[in-house]
């Protein structure tokens, strides 16, 4: 069920003596293509979704924030001037955003707030970025005398993750949550920060997420390992081609030149990244001429690369990808870091009902649990609702 203003307002009124404030929202996201490219200075291609966070906020005339998480049924109070902040992780997101906005010179005052979200957890749709973006936008609107640009608000969210949560994330999730546009996907150059919007009006097609609801526990740090592998290959290539600063600058020919100087695993990782940079640009070109069959093929190619070359898939995600092929789905791939989570699927309208039915039945038959099917509508970024 879609989260509404009334869902949040009713709880705000209950917990804050019948008062009402201003209501803000920011979305979660999908990423159509461009996975594991961000830390290789490549491109990502996300879109904001209708699901997100909604928060009601009212200044309270103090230096304290009184926050209520509707979903967790938990209430936390903290002072804006406290150097340590609250212990509860969810409250630290709000605290971190407040502190980072204060660092930018925004005269943040105390407020009461209640919030809830309908971003599915574990689906790689970035509920944390939606939370950060909601409060960054709201604080800017309520207290900012000189309004801060949206990209800087996204950076506030990223710094919150780094400094107050301990997650060394990239900028994609916060950027699309702040800068998303309904009916458009956003290509972001992870080196320069440049963004460009591309129309998303797939007549005859729809986007469907299938959440496997599994997440495999991993030994070691596979993401860090892959990042180091990519950086090492770029360094080896740069000895012959000094213009190569990262794998984003490399070509398959350059990679083949150094094949005997790197490990087999490194070769596969680099092959995937170089191919993915090309695929993102190909998808952008295809969208400009409404070639959704090309978009779909690139998605399948990405899944193959993530599964066989980057090796971040798992049995369940590969199974979902196979079912998509069997059902005639135009494009399907892992979305997110991998090892669990969901697939994103580009499905022709006439095939969608059967695909949704079959994928649930087959997955439950094989794994004993139902996946969650989520219809995707591309929406707007952070905004005030009332």
UniProtKB/TrEMBL annotation:
<keyword id="KW-0547">Nucleotide-binding</keyword>
<dbReference type="InterPro" id="IPR020568">
    <property type="entry name" value="Ribosomal_Su5_D2-typ_SF"/>
</dbReference>
<dbReference type="Pfam" id="PF00288">
    <property type="entry name" value="GHMP_kinases_N"/>
</dbReference>
<dbReference type="Pfam" id="PF08544">
    <property type="entry name" value="GHMP_kinases_C"/>
</dbReference>
<dbReference type="InterPro" id="IPR006204">
    <property type="entry name" value="GHMP_kinase_N_dom"/>
</dbReference>
<dbReference type="InterPro" id="IPR006203">
    <property type="entry name" value="GHMP_knse_ATP-bd_CS"/>
</dbReference>
<feature type="domain" description="GHMP kinase C-terminal">
    <location>
        <begin position="285"/>
        <end position="351"/>
    </location>
</feature>
<dbReference type="InterPro" id="IPR019539">
    <property type="entry name" value="GalKase_N"/>
</dbReference>
<dbReference type="InterPro" id="IPR013750">
    <property type="entry name" value="GHMP_kinase_C_dom"/>
</dbReference>
<comment type="similarity">
    <text>Belongs to the GHMP kinase family. GalK subfamily.</text>
</comment>
<keyword id="KW-0418">Kinase</keyword>
<keyword id="KW-0067">ATP-binding</keyword>
<feature type="domain" description="GHMP kinase N-terminal">
    <location>
        <begin position="93"/>
        <end position="181"/>
    </location>
</feature>
<keyword id="KW-0299">Galactose metabolism</keyword>
<feature type="domain" description="Galactokinase N-terminal">
    <location>
        <begin position="11"/>
        <end position="59"/>
    </location>
</feature>
<keyword id="KW-0808">Transferase</keyword>
<dbReference type="GO" id="GO:0046872">
    <property type="term" value="F:metal ion binding"/>
</dbReference>
<dbReference type="InterPro" id="IPR014721">
    <property type="entry name" value="Ribsml_uS5_D2-typ_fold_subgr"/>
</dbReference>
<dbReference type="GO" id="GO:0006012">
    <property type="term" value="P:galactose metabolic process"/>
</dbReference>
<dbReference type="InterPro" id="IPR036554">
    <property type="entry name" value="GHMP_kinase_C_sf"/>
</dbReference>
<dbReference type="GO" id="GO:0005524">
    <property type="term" value="F:ATP binding"/>
</dbReference>
<dbReference type="InterPro" id="IPR019741">
    <property type="entry name" value="Galactokinase_CS"/>
</dbReference>
<keyword id="KW-0963">Cytoplasm</keyword>
<dbReference type="GO" id="GO:0004335">
    <property type="term" value="F:galactokinase activity"/>
</dbReference>
<keyword id="KW-0460">Magnesium</keyword>
<keyword id="KW-0119">Carbohydrate metabolism</keyword>
<dbReference type="Pfam" id="PF10509">
    <property type="entry name" value="GalKase_gal_bdg"/>
</dbReference>
<protein>
    <recommendedName>
        <fullName>Galactokinase</fullName>
        <ecNumber>2.7.1.6</ecNumber>
    </recommendedName>
</protein>
<dbReference type="InterPro" id="IPR006206">
    <property type="entry name" value="Mevalonate/galactokinase"/>
</dbReference>
<keyword id="KW-0479">Metal-binding</keyword>
<dbReference type="GO" id="GO:0005829">
    <property type="term" value="C:cytosol"/>
</dbReference>
<dbReference type="InterPro" id="IPR000705">
    <property type="entry name" value="Galactokinase"/>
</dbReference>
């Amino acid at each position: 069920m879609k989260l509404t203003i009334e869902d949040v307002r009713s709880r705000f009124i209950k917990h804050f003596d019948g008062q009402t404030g201003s209501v803000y929202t920011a979305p979660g996201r999908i990423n159509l293509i461009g996975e594991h490219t961000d830390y290789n200075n490549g491109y990502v291609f996300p879109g904001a979704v209708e699901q997100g966070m909604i928060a009601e906020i009212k200044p309270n005339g103090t230096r304290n924030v009184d926050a209520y998480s509707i979903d967790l049924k938990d209430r936390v109070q903290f002072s804006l001037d406290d150097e340590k902040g609250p212990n509860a992780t969810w409250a630290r997101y709000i605290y971190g955003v407040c502190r980072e906005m204060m660092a930018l010179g925004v005269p943040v005052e105390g407020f009461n707030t209640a919030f809830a979200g309908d971003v599915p957890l574990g689906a790689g749709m970035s509920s944390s970025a939606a939370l950060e973006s909601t409060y960054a936008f709201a604080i800017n609107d309520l207290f900012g005398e000189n309004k801060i640009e949206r990209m800087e608000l996204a950076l506030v969210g990223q710094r919150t993750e780094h400094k107050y949560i301990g997650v060394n994330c990239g900028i994609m999730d916060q950027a699309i949550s702040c800068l998303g546009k309904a009916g458009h996907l956003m290509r972001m150059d992870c080196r320069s920060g440049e963004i460009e919007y591309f129309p998303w009006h797939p007549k005859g097609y729809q986007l469907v997420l299938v959440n496997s609801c599994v997440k495999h526990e991993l030994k070691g740090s596979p993401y860090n390992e892959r990042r180091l592998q990519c950086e090492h290959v770029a360094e080896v290539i740069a000895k012959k081609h000094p213009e190569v600063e990262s794998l984003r600058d490399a070509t398959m020919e350059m990679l083949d030149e150094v094949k005997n100087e790197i490990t087999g695993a490194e070769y596969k990782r680099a092959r995937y990244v170089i191919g993915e940079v090309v695929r993102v640009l190909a998808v952008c070109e295809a969208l400009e001429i409404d070639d959704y069959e090309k978009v779909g093929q690139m998605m399948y190619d990405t899944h193959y690369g993530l599964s066989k070359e980057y090796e971040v898939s798992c049995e369940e995600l590969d199974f979902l990808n196979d079912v998509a092929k069997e059902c005639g789905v135009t494009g399907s791939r892992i979305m997110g870091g991998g090892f669990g989570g969901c697939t994103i699927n580009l499905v022709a309208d006439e095939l969608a009902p059967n695909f949704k039915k079959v994928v649930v039945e087959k997955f439950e038959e094989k794994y004993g649990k139902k996946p969650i099917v989520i219809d995707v509508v591309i929406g707007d970024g952070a905004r005030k609702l009332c």
